[in-house]
Amino acid sequence: MVVKYQDLHFSPRNGRKIKLATAKGVFDPNVTTELLINAVKKTISKPKKMLDLGCGTGVVGLSLWLEGLVKEPIYASDLSLPSVFCSQENFKCYECKAEVRCGGLFEPWDGEKFDVIIDDISGISQDIASISPWFGGVPCDTGADGA
Questions:
Q1: Mutual orientation of helices 59-66 and 81-93 as an angle, nearest 10°?
Q2: CA–CA distance, 137 with 25 (Å, rounded to integer)
Q3: Taking the CA of residue 147 as centre, how many other CA atoms within 13 Å lie in the half-sphere pointing to its CB?
Q4: Whole-structure pTM value
Q5: Peptide bond before residue 73 is cis, with ω within 30 degrees of 0
Q6: Where are the beta strands (DSSP E) in the chain?
Q7: Which residues contact 143 (CB under 8 A, 6 or more apart)?
Q8: Along the 147 residues of the chain, how does pLDDT read in single tens digits?
Q9: What's the half-sphere exposure (Cβ side, CA atoms, 13 Å) at 91?
């Protein structure tokens, strides 16, 4: 699979500006992403073994790693192979050790335990996502009820 990367910049409030590689079909960081990052920053104060579930570009894990809140390696996974490739590229760009896997939910992490699991996976109905500009062509195979 060939992934054509595009540059994207993201700056969480009170955080460092991050340059990210993204690609078609990979969810771009947004206000929800920023809220999630800030909620975790308020909740933990020292580095933890962390899983970024539904990692997309890897921006959540990377932001928290840049804040010194992640024990290396950061663990990250996504159902989307382009997302896995983008995350790997972004972690490498910042010299952040990461283990990034492709798969659904916890399937790639059988037998692993984490101190913190960050979940930025959509629970929006597939029918709504298909007409929402918020998804911008990113696949959303969540069914009619979003489960």
A1: 20
A2: 6
A3: 1
A4: 0.80
A5: yes
A6: 6-10, 18-22, 50-53, 74-78, 98-102, 116-119
A7: 125, 126
A8: 555 656 666 776 666 788 898 888 888 888 888 888 989 999 999 999 999 999 999 999 999 999 999 999 999 999 889 999 999 999 999 999 999 999 988 999 999 999 999 987 665 666 766 666 655 655 666 666 655
A9: 27
Minimal CA–CA distance to 49: which of 91, 82, 97, 89?
97
CB 92 within 8 A of CB 76: no
pLDDT at 18: 85
> Angle of helix 31-43 relative to helix 59-66, nearest 10 degrees?
40
Residue matched to tokens 């597939």: 126
Between the alpha carbon of residue 145 and those of residues 126, 138, 141, the distances in Å are 8, 18, 11
Amino acid (1-letter code) at residue 129: A
- What's the token pair of residue 143? 């069914």
